[in-house]
Design a protein that fits this description.
It is built from 11 helices and 20 strands. It has 2 domains: about 130 residues, Creatinase/prolidase N-terminal domain (Creatine Amidinohydrolase, Chain A, domain 1, 3-Layer(aba) Sandwich), CATH 3.40.350.10; about 220 residues, Creatine Amidinohydrolase. It is elongated. It has a 6-stranded mixed beta sheet with strand order 4-3-2-1-5-6, with helices on both faces. A 4-stranded mixed beta sheet has the order 8-9-12-20, with helices on both faces. α8 packs across α9 and α10 packs antiparallel against α11. It binds zinc ion (2 copies). One zinc ion (ZN) binds next to loops.
Length: about 350
């Protein structure tokens, strides 16, 4: 397991940020650093050791983690225990970092009352998580591999005449049948004019003929997410939507082509956006081109016009331009990609040419 390496990387990042110890309270970050998957835990990384604080309910589950982290069972309130133990666990550390985006004001006050040197250390673990190790990349690959059969089954079964809610429910069943642990987020099924809402909620009305249907879905497998969007046609969509589909596809392909290590993530956004702008739809593409993905569906790096991040091998990002035409409908096409030493490895292989289904 790579938890020793991750904890060492966290210490290096802490040293760079000028903190000698750190209270990691975000549960996803706790999981990343230690493998702990419960609902109540935090890690204190001190100069000498890392200590996971959790409670009795997770005693058995946390036993195997003792190979790389000390485990202490606290009363239910782990933050009070951390406050009580901080003097010892962070002895000689000087400044103690905390995660300002992930610690409530109340919990911060409890820690601050027990320690003078508390200092914000924003995004430290998130930055480490942005570059995945081989084990994580395999986990994302496995999660993404469950997507193609779901689209294939949906296309086979047809969309017209079923409600968007029925299709969303079917997606959940299909992922379960395929071996997924859960869906990664509420599936989006958006037909007719609802396709103009990037995050439409599936409606309880039947999908009709001659419309585009945007289906954005993903699953969780062994903690790692996947995320993909395809837009299908039922019959012959209105001419304007057919044109929007073509533009969106060209934009998506251009952005996929642009992916390589060493370039700003904003370059990928620009590749997608300029094609859509040139076609006159610039105003109708109002979200970033993509986002990082791993233990969370949305994590670093963002792939937007103002993103400062540089793409590095081991990053996992989505490429998902869309065109949304109010009152008419919309289209989005999304792939999941690993940034490799030479370019990009596409993980979501279902076809992107417009697929017409019944
Ligand atoms: Zn998506
Ligand atoms: Zn996405």
């Amino acid at each position: 397991m790579s938890y020793d390496r991750r904890l060492a990387a966290a210490r290096a990042a802490m040293a760079e940020a000028g903190v000698g110890a750190m209270v990691v309270s975000g549960l996803v970050n706790v999981r990343y650093l230690t493998g702990f998957t419960g609902s109540n835990g935090l890690v204190v990384i001190g100069p000498e050791a890392a200590t996971l604080l959790t409670d009795f309910r997770y005693q058995t589950a946390s036993d195997p983690l003792r190979a790389w982290v000390d485990v202490e069972l606290a009363e239910r309130d782990v933050i009070r225990t951390a406050a009580d133990r901080l003097g010892e666990l962070a002895a000689g550390a000087g400044k103690v970092g905390f995660e300002p985006a992930l610690l409530t004001v109340e919990r911060h006050a409890i820690l601050a009352a027990s320690h003078d040197g508390l200092t914000p250390a924003p995004g430290l673990i998130e930055k480490l998580r942005a570059v995945k190790d081989d084990e994580e990349l395999d986990a994302v690959r496995a999660s993404a591999a469950l997507i193609e059969p779901v689209y294939a089954a949906l296309a086979d079964e047809g969309l017209a005449g079923r409600t968007e809610q029925d299709v969303a429910w079917r997606v959940r069943e299909l992922f379960h049948e395929g071996g997924a642990d859960d869906i990664a987020f509420d599936t989006i099924v958006a037909s007719h004019e609802r396709g103009a809402q990037p995050h439409a909620e599936p409606a309880a009305v039947p999908i009709g003929a001659d419309t585009l249907v945007t289906i954005d879905l993903g699953c969780i497998l062994a903690g790692y997410n996947s995320d993909c969007t395809r837009t299908f046609a039922t019959g012959t969509p209105p001419l304007e939507l057919a044109r929007a589909y073509d533009v969106c596809l060209q934009s998506q392909l251009a952005a996929m082509d642009a992916i390589r290590p060493g370039i700003p993530a904003s370059t990928v956004d620009l590749a997608a956006r300029s094609l859509i702008e040139d076609a006159g739809y610039g105003e109708r593409f109002g979200h970033p081109t993509g986002h990082g993905l791993g233990l969370e569906v949305h994590e670093a790096p963002r792939v937007g016009s103002k993103t400062a991040a540089t793409l590095e091998p081991g990053m996992v990002v989505t490429v998902e331009p869309g065109i949304y035409l109010p009152g008419v409908g919309g289209v989005r096409i999304e792939d999941l990609v690993i940034v490799t030493p030479t370019g990009g490895e596409r993980l979501t292989m279902y076809p992107k040419d417009l697929v017409t289904v019944g």
